[in-house]
Please model this.
Amino acid sequence: MPKAALLSSQPIALITGASSGFGLLTSIRLAQEGFRVIATMRDMGKKEALLAKAKENGVLERIETMKLDITDHENVAAVIETVIQRWERIDVLINNAGYAVMGVIEEVPMADWRAQLETNFFGTVAVTKAVLPHMRTRKQGKIINVSSGAGIIGFSNTGAYSASKFAMEGFSEALRLELMSFSIPVVLVQPGTYDTGIAAKHVYRSHSDSPYSHMIERFNHFNAKSEQNSPNPIHVANTIVKICKARAPKLRYTCGSDAKLIFLMKKMLPWRVIEWTLRKALQ
Model:
C-alpha cells in the first residue's frame, strides 16, 4: 500500500515559512498532535534546523519539507497541486511566511514597499487562492493567517510592515464571511513580540542624516528591549494547534501581553489617548 494511503487518516497541514520561528515550532507541535505536516520554506538550505528538531521530538516521519517561494505564483500552484495529488487534501493552511521592513515612511524606498506587500500580503493571497478550490469542494478545512500586533495599530517606523498586516486583516475578515457557507473558518493570529530571532531578519531603512533620527533611535531601543524580555514563542505555536483542533474557532487570537494591551487600547481608548501614549513611549 502506498505511503500516502497508509497515512490518509492523518489530517494534513501545510505551513509556509517553516524554517524558523513560529513556523518551525508550529510544525513540530502539529506533528506531535498527529498531523501530517507539509513544512514549506523559500530556502531549502535552512531545513536542517527543522528536521533536527523534528528528530529530537520523535516526529520526523510526520514532517515533509518542500520548497515554496510564495512570491512565485507558478511555484505556489505547482506545490499545492503536488500536495493534493499525493495526499488528496489540505485540512489546514497556515499562512505564516513573512518578514518586516523597518523605517519611517519617507525613507523606505518604493522597492521595499513593493517587496513587503508582495511577500506578506500578495503571497498569502496567492497561496490561499490556490488551496481554496480544494477546501471549498470538500466543504472542509481551516485557514489560519499569522498577523501581528502591528496589524492592530500602525506604529512609527513600521509603516510598511503594518500596511502589509492591516491588508491581511481586511482580507481575512472578508474571506471568513465568504467561506462561512462552505464550513471553512478563517482565523487571524496576532502575536506580539516573541523571542524567535526574527529581529535579525528585519530590513532596516534610514538615512544617515535623517531628520527622524531621534525617533528611529528611540524606537530601535524600545524594540530591542522588548525582544530581550519577550516570552517563549511556543505559546503562539500552541495557540495555532488549539485553533487547528477547534470545531468553531473565533476570528482573532491575540498572543502576548503586549499585543493584548495594544488590542485593548485600540478597542477602548480614543485615538488621541493612544497617540499620546505611543508618542511618549516611542518618540
